[in-house]
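Design review, sub-item: ligand-bound model
Attendees: FS, YL, KQ
YL presented the inputs for the magnesium ion complex:
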Amino acid sequence: MTSSPHSTSRAGETRPGGASADRTELVTTAEREAALLAPYAMFSADTAGREREEAEHPYRGPFQRDRDRILHSSAFRRLSGKMQVFTGERGDYHRTRLTHTQEVASIARTIGRALRLNEDLIEALALFHDIGHPPFGHAGEDALDECLRDHGGFSHNAYGLTIARELETRHDGTPGLNLTREVLACQKTRIDKTTGPAPLLEAQVVDLADSITYDAHDTDDAVKLGMVTLDELSELTLVRDTMAQNRRRLGDEAEPYVQRKALVHGLIDRQVSSLLQSAADSLRQQRFRCAQDVIDLGFRLEHDSELAGQKEELEAFLYQRVYRHPELIEMRARAQSRLAALFGAFVSARNGLPAKYRRRIDEVGLHRAVGDYLAGMTDRFCNEQFEQVVGRPS
Ligand code: MG
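KQ shared the predicted structure:
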């Protein structure tokens, strides 16, 4: 094996921008970030702390602890049983809310690392970004919003905050995950999207990675499930250009499943590379001195207009041909009527709620407590509860 120039560093040598190679003591988060992050990144040392004060951890930074708290929460694990676009009735190939979240975290970290942002914060935000999704995706969200229309409505972003602040329990028995104010503030900017301040760059990267991820994987799932063909997709500029590039690499005879995989890879790579190019250009021009400058200036990272237009074209196609597919519309209607019926059943018979949610009625009222219980369910558990509590439809 040929050794890289880095692996030949001798003990005691200091690598550029790094620590001495023979150093044996633990490197603190502050030291590591000082060596690696750009001035516009969110530094752990600058955190505004937590709503309930806690001592610092000896070797884990505040955003790393946030990431761990989210990863170990029960709401996070339940994402494996929540649909992204397709329910489990369509087999096991397609993405769940959990695998979507993992793909977002991976892509967001790639972008964040290249831009020298805080990867711990990015990962925490990515793992958290869809944690408030109820069963049956946006169909479930709309159904609960309707059920709670006279009680403040329902949104998955607001419910994510409820999970973080109230519904989870930590290992010391205290309520909520007690996340840093930065993670909570970033979630709030998702709620007040148009009216609130610009979020930290780490949060902006997660939102951009979310869209890069679902554009690529929904395309893949839709082809695999036979809803659209590669030929139909190749009418779209972004897909056509990506497939042409892939053909130059793979030749014309590649198997369709290889073409499909190459398309997902190409869609992600194209979008990430283009975003990094435009982000590097605009960050170089802005010369931000700290993360607060980004917020104060209302700066937004975005795709260049050409790629943004190509993404719009792909998303409009996916909306028409996949999200509005008759099969999905039917599933959506079935899920919504189940959630509405379950909601009504628990409102009329509150004793059927688990003790935790019966107690919650005193704090947030009956309707919100029922909504919070239903929103935490997986798709499968929701279906089971429907059959047990409401009964099979005749
Ligand atoms: Mg998402």
